[in-house]
Amino acid sequence: MDQATTSSPSSPPPPLRPMQDKLDRHETHGQQSRSSHTLSPPIPDDDDDNEDAPTPPDNQQPLPLTMTTSVLLADLPRDATAALATAGTFPQEKVVVRFKPVGSAPSLAQELCKITATRKFEEVVRYLRRKLKCGDSESVFLYVNSAFAPSLDEVVGNLYQVCEYVWDVGSFGGLHG
């Protein structure tokens, strides 16, 4: 069956065959069949000298934080509900919109108007159509900062934030806060 191997002192010993092979197979009447033997669970390591190892995260013990991290974490919302409650808010409740006519478009008597930041851009279009007394068949084209035409469902506060970023970079015009 197994041959005995001899090894010289300079060569490594042959690999050991796993015990599972010997336990799982046995010969019955010249045929090999699977046995119901299974390995016992592995023996846990008895490293009692490593008692200072960190505890698993299941204990929910607080981790030490740097001062900078603790200050940042103190300002974060406690849960997703609190974060979502402040997600749709804008720094200013109302936004001032300045209308500048281009080409042959008529000018308004009042160039500025205020609108709530949470309103949609379609309300700005509706307001302008009403002020210009446009008919249903007449088209009105509105551009923000003479650069782009937002969709009607865009929130005015978001457009203001885009303009505010452009103002910080150095361009002027469009929606004013």
Automatic annotation (TrEMBL):
Localization: Preautophagosomal structure membrane
SUBUNIT field: Forms a conjugate with ATG5.
The keyword Transport appears for this protein: yes
Biased composition (Polar residues): 30-39
Entry keyword annotation includes Transcription: no
Primary location recorded for the protein, binned into one broad class: membrane
Start and end residues of each stretch annotated as Disordered: 1-65
Keywords: Autophagy, Isopeptide bond, Membrane, Protein transport, Transport, Ubl conjugation pathway
InterPro entries: Atg12, Ubiquitin-like_domsf
GO biological process: autophagosome assembly; autophagosome maturation; autophagy of mitochondrion; glycophagy; piecemeal microautophagy of the nucleus; protein transport
Alphabetical list of Pfam families matching this protein: APG12
Protein family (similarity comment): Belongs to the ATG12 family.
Organism (species): Claviceps arundinis
Protein name from the UniProt record: Ubiquitin-like protein ATG12
Membrane topology: Peripheral membrane protein
Functional note: Ubiquitin-like protein involved in cytoplasm to vacuole transport (Cvt), autophagy vesicles formation, mitophagy, and nucleophagy.
Entry GO terms, CC: Atg12-Atg5-Atg16 complex; autophagosome membrane; phagophore assembly site membrane
